[in-house]
């Protein structure tokens, strides 16, 4: 049922990275947060593809080292791409903009 290479260290690494994704999505501005929170699994998929399976399945892979060094740059690149893709695909859907304005007034 599961991949033979799946083990505890792989799961710990994946969970550490996914938790970091969730934590950083919550820190985004309201429009970006709304779009990326709905696309969090796509965002995670893109980040994991960027890391590559060979690194993730390697028992020596250090997810904390990745989070401290490369994660921020990768996260920013892919969150911006998701927002740009949303804007290009749905230019007439202004709901996130209206909702983000509402969130901004509530936050203040």
From TrEMBL:
Domain of life: Bacteria
The protein, known as: Uncharacterized protein
Organism, as annotated: Gillisia mitskevichiae
């Amino acid at each position: 049922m599961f991949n033979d290479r799946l083990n505890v260290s792989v799961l710990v690494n994946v969970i550490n990275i996914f938790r970091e994704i969730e934590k950083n999505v919550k820190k985004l501005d309201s429009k970006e947060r709304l779009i990326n929170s709905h696309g969090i699994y796509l965002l995670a998929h893109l980040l994991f593809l960027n890391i590559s399976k060979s690194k993730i399945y390697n028992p020596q892979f250090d997810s904390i080292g990745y989070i401290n060094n490369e994660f921020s740059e990768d996260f920013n690149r892919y969150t911006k791409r998701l927002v740009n893709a949303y804007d290009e695909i749905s230019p007439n859907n202004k709901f996130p903009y209206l909702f983000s304005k509402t969130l901004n007034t509530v936050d203040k």
